[in-house]
Structure formats: C-alpha cells, structure tokens
Amino acid sequence: MAQQILALIVVIFFLTKVVWQYRHREIQKNEFTFWLLFWLLAAIVIILLKQIDQVVANLGFSGSGIQVVFYLGVVLLFYLLGRLRLRLAKMDQDISKLVTKLAIEENRVQSNKKEV
Amino acid sequence: MKVFCIIPAYNEARNIGQVISAVQPYVDHVIVVDDCSSDQTATVAKQTLAVVLQHALNRNQGGALTTGTAYVLSQAVADQDIIIHFDADGQMRAQDIPTVIAPLLAGQADVVFGSRFLDQTTKMPWFKKYIIMNLARLVNRLMGVKLTDPQSGFRAMTVAVAKQLHWQDGRSHASEILVAVHQAHYRITEVPITVLYHRFGLNFGSGLKIIKDIFIGKLIK
C-alpha cells in the first residue's frame, strides 16, 4: 500500500509537470495529450495493481501483475526509442537538404560577385 | 552532350589538385563538393577551373554527391548529358573515364558502373576482395542486384536518370543507387576500371553501417 502511494505521488508530480509545461507553451498539444494519457494510464495501473495481479494469474502466468507491467514498459520503451531514432534520421535528412541548398546558393552568390 | 564530373572531397587537400587536373581533359565541367573539410581542400580546389561547392556541415560522401548532382541539375542541362561520380582520394584513374562514359555516348546504356573485378588490374587487399566484397554481393543479391562490383563508386549516368535517383548521406548511397537503377529497369552496363589502393577504404564495420543505413532509410521513406 505504501509503495502504491509513493508511486502515485511520483505520477502526480509528473502529471503536474506536464500540465505546467503545456500552460507555459513548452510542449505542444499532441505531446501534452500523449504524456497526459501516459501518466493517467500509469496511475490507473498503480491503483488497479491487485486486479491486474488477478487478471495475470487467470491468464495462467506465474509472475505477478507488476512484473507484466514492467515487461510491457520495457517493450514500450524500445518502441519509443525506435521512433526517436527514426525522427532523428528524418531530421538528419532535412539538415542535408538545407546544407545542399546553402552550398548551391553560396556558389551562385560568389559567381555573381565575380561577374560584377 | 556535356559531361559533368562530381568529386566529393573531405580532407583531400593533398590529392584534390592532382585529381582535378587529371579529370579535366576528359570532361566539360568538374564540380568539387568540399564536405566541410578541416584542411585546405576547398582552397586548393578553388585554384583550379573546377566549380567548388562547400558544405557548412559534414554530410558524408552520399550527401556531397547529392549536392553535386543537385547543382548539375540546377544548370541548363539536357536529359542526355552525363554525370560522373569520381573519388577525390586519387585511387581512381581519370584515363578510365572514356571507357566509363562510352556506353552512354553510344546510347547503349543509361547507367554505367566501373567494375574492379572485370579484369585483374586492381590489386585489392585480400580481406576486402574475398570477405567484404562477397558479403556485399550477397546483400545486393538479396535486393535483386547482380553485378560483379557490389560497391562501385565510379559510375556515370545520364541526367535523365540522375533526376529520378535519391540516396542517403552516408556510405549506403552506392548500394542504394545500384538497387534503384535495377528496380527502375534502366539499361545498366559494367565496364572494367582499375583502382590503385593507397588506403583500405570500406572495412567490415563500414559494411554493417551501410546495411543499418539502408534499413533506416527504408523506414523513413
């Protein structure tokens, strides 16, 4: 019980932080929605931990509910890491487009100067 | 019909002058793309008749070739004009350029790849020749490419082909170009070239990085 209360305090801290960031326009609406849902889901999981234990046991798993939640968390982390990697690759591609554009433009400007 | 030679260069101040001089008699325009070198590559290149484009950030060989190609395409070019990709490290021989562009000039091909394996003139390091190249061939076969040289950087294509091609910044561009021209069913020819090895070039780690780049490239398309 004490552990659940402690975990809920952590979740409330992060929920408050997300709301604060959104109000101060540090994050955008879609990011706010994602993290709001994420932490609300985390709170629900903490509150319903006993029921999750029951569901996991009924499904025939030997581990406790918290272990299943932990495994799912690891899977989610890998998924988010993959998405982050792809977003970085896309940004890298966009930087290259800019570098190309700049190089050609710079050459054009210098050629014009020479002609003048 | 004009012939453009694109030379991506990174820290090649020692070689770039000689490479430009060697290439110039065989082509109409030389375009050097200095990939944010920390040495005097751009300064040396600017002392020649070559067009010099300078990257503000290092974008690797693929990125430099993209810039060079975009520059050529931004000029008044005809579809049958020719673009050559050539290395700045002095390992490729400029006298092979007529052989590489001959099938394009004759209208027999749309893309030509120089091959280090069609004759025995290239003295490639053993590990590269028998291990890395065979692994690269295997990867290419999986993507439907059957050429003797799986990683040729000496290639020529018509402007019409270059307009349709896109590749990534890293080292995977060689494989990407091979796969793209095969999938688009362009007329492809290989001709023998000789490469003089001063340095090892692509190693096993680079090969793995190429595979990773191709994979990520597919995911972000």
Descriptive keywords:
heterodimer; A: 116 residues; B: 221 residues; alpha/beta; Spore Coat Polysaccharide Biosynthesis Protein SpsA, Chain A; seven-stranded mixed sheet; 8 helices; globular
Helix percent band of chain A: over 70%
Q: What Rg of chain B, in angstroms, do the CA atoms define?
A: 16 Å
Number of helices of chain B: 8
Structural class of chain A: mainly alpha
H/E series of chain B, N to C?
Answer: EHEHEHEHEHEHHEH
Which pair of protein chains has the largest interface, and what are the residue counts? A-B, 15 and 21 residues
Number of strands of chain A: 0
Assembly category: heterodimer
User: What is the mean predicted local confidence, pLDDT of chain B?
Assistant: 87
Termini Cα gap of chain A: 80 Å
Strand arrangement, largest sheet of chain B? 3-2-1-4-6-5-7
List the helices and strands of chain A in order. HHHH
The SS-based structural class of chain B is alpha/beta
Residue share in β-strands of chain B: 15-25%
Q: How can the largest sheet of chain B be summarized?
A: 7 strands, mixed
CATH class of chain B: Alpha Beta
State the shape of chain B: globular
| Name of the CATH homologous superfamily of chain B | Spore Coat Polysaccharide Biosynthesis Protein SpsA, Chain A
Helix content of chain B: 40-55%
Kindly report the average pLDDT value of chain A. Answer: 88
